[in-house]
Design goal:
The protein is globular. It folds into 2 domains: 184 residues, Prim-pol fold, CATH 3.30.2250; 66 residues, no CATH class. The protein is α+β, with helices and mostly antiparallel strands. A hairpin with a 4-residue loop joins strand 4 and strand 5. Helix 7 crosses helix 9. The strands form 2 sheets. Strands 3, 4, 5, 6, 8 and 9 form a 6-stranded mixed β-sheet that branches. It is built from 9 helices and 9 strands.
Length: 273
């Protein structure tokens, strides 16, 4: 499936589409002023108003150059007016594990395989105002949710690693969000009490970057770690990779994911981690 194939499939199934950066263009085509290195994920238009369901417009947009298709989540409606909610698992089986831990079974629904895990598309009642918060799943689920003013990369998109986002079953529509998941998302998260801002002392030259990474919230941890690692690499700060790795794990990233992000940042700057 090409990016255009993915975009056309989406609009033909009622999903609002807009273009994002593509990792094979020479420069990032996102609207932001500075790219954080996460190529292929940055909106190329103001997605809250630049989305479309028009096939002619989609063909024109994707004929202008390489772009990844993305879905404007808040602009999508179900058959009875439901609102779209996308569960973004950072590893295969992450949401199934959460369901199992609560004595539930994850239902089959529209799924898009991603570079790290999968996106599960669900319909939620239009009367509920859901956002990107995890509610009581905070700290229990390896991933995020996307609802309301949010977007996800769609099928046919190319990830920077070379993985193409792929529909698991093109014939399966989104299911209704299960009641247990709605209850969890609507509860306030239980925040752990930290006795110290960071578990180990660091040098003055790294203190600001470490705090920036250690205080990251879910959904921003990778991008903040990438930025901090780039700054540390530019300044040639000794022991920066190990210290930033500890801070990232403290913030909730896995060691493998944090190490990969740091390596990528140092490579971007042109030095070895």
């Amino acid at each position: 499936m090409t990016p255009l194939d993915g975009a056309l499939w989406l609009i033909r199934h009622g999903f609002a589409v807009f273009p994002c950066d593509h990792p094979e263009t020479p420069r990032c085509t996102g609207l932001h002023k500075t790219c954080d290195g996460s190529r292929g994920k940055h909106p190329a238009v103001a997605f809250t108003r630049g989305w479309t369901l028009n096939e002619r417009k989609v063909r024109e947009t994707f004929a202008r150059g390489l772009r990844n298709p993305a879905v404007a989540v808040g602009a999508c409606c179900g058959p009875a007016g439901e609102r779209l909610l996308v569960v973004d698992s950072d590893r295969p089986g992450a949401i199934e594990d959460v369901a199992g831990a609560g004595g539930e079974r994850w239902q089959a629904t529209m799924r898009v395989r991603t570079a790290k895990g999968h996106h599960d598309y669900l319909w939620a009642p239009a009367t509920l105002k859901l956002g990107n918060g995890l509610g009581s799943l905070q700290g229990q689920f390896d991933g995020d949710v996307r609802a309301g003013n949010a977007y996800v990369i769609g099928p046919g998109a190319l990830h920077a690693t070379g993985v193409v986002y792929e529909l698991e079953d093109p014939e399966r529509p989104p299911a209704m969000v299960p009641a247990w998941l709605l209850r969890a998302l609507l509860r306030k998260p239980q925040r752990p009490v930290r006795t110290t801002p960071y578990p180990r002392p660091v040098s003055r030259s790294l203190a600001g970057l470490v705090k920036f990474v250690a205080d990251s919230r879910q959904g921003e941890r990778n991008s903040r770690l990438f930025w901090a690692a780039c700054r540390a690499a530019e300044a040639a700060v000794e022991d920066a990779p190990a210290v930033l790795l500890d801070a990232a794990v403290h913030a909730g990233l896995t060691e493998a994911e944090a190490r990969s992000t740091i390596t990528s940042a140092f490579r971007t700057v042109g030095v070895s981690a």
